[in-house]
Amino acid sequence: MAIETIPLSGQLNALNQAQGKLIDLSIEFGPRLLAAALILGVGYYVGRWVGRMLDKMLTRMSMDITIRQLLVRIARMLVLILFLIMALQNLGVDLLPLIAGLGVAGAGIALAMQGVLSNLAAGLTIIFTRPYRVNEYISIVKEEGLVESITLFNTTLSHLDLSKVIIPNRKIVGEILHNYGEIRQVSLAVGVSYSTDLNLALTTVQELLRSNPRVLQDPEPVVQIVTLADSSVTIAVRPWVNLPDYVAAIGELNQALLETFRQRGISIPCPQREVRLVERS
Domain 14-93: which topology? Predict the structure, then answer.
């Protein structure tokens, strides 16, 4: 089989023509590409500068951190879009057909990403209605924890066991939300015998609550008799503590109640049941 070969002179001519076209294109579009790259670079740094200035201004206004972060991101994005349009115009790109094409593509993307968009809409609802904020303790959709961050798409909760739960925002909007805020009420109960001096027992509990540094005095702790049980009188002990002190306060108060009641001779009776045997003739 004969192999057709291209003369060396023809190859050199084709190479010279390609090289000439590249040089012509570089001369024609090189400065424009360089200018567009410079415009985008300037836009990036201008966006960061605008974001920092806006963040400082909103911080002085004591605006909520979640809304502040959202507005800063929007400002940076708008600046970048503005400089991107300037770069495209510098390259001679006709923006009207591009915008029309993006609109058609956006409609298709919206249909394919309904879940993401619903999370986005729910995130905006949460950010602007503010049913909860960062550093508040909430319970929602069978999960609870300290709100660590709120983004446009999800909310991150941190548990006391150092684990994290990430909940999509669309799972939160419309659900029943329990917001504990930044403090929680400890719910304890202790039983004393019916022969106990109740005033002494109540006074002892109140003294323990005043002496514990984790217990908040405002709101005032709740100490009251709640149940007359079969073998004991139940006293409810319900003080408020800061969120980080919740678990530690439960252990400290239970230990202090037991030790102090023993020292003062206040009896904590065990459950008792009286059984009678009746003979039948």
Answer: Helix Hairpins (1.10.287)
